[in-house]
Amino acid sequence: MLEIDYTLFIQIANFLFLLIVLNIILYRPIRNILRQRGTEMESIEHKIAELEDRAADHSYELEESMARARREGSEQKEGLRHDGLEEEKGMMREAAGKAGDKIEQARKEIEQKLAAARRSLESEVDVFSRQLAEKILGRSV
Prior knowledge:
The chain is mostly helical. The chain has one domain (8-109). The protein is built from one helix and no strands.
């Protein structure tokens, strides 16, 4: 059977001494390292959360600026298109006006040439009619 004597107390003292020594040499440093690692992990997780928030903010700002740039580009495009159409209309009006002026000038030239041809023919009508009459009659008139 089990006898309780002084060796039991030596074994208990030995166990407690070993427990204290292991606690000082082994367990405390390991617990400190685990505690430090835990705080580092928490700070890293906190930094990760901050960086994710900043990334989301930057992403939102980027999308907003892209949308704004698209709107401004579209407005500029429409403005340029409108300006181009107005310029085209002005050029068409100018071309139509020039064409109308050229047509009017050509009509005046034709009328002047026609009038000059009539005058020259009117002056020569007497000569032609005399020659025609002489040929028809066969004698001089």
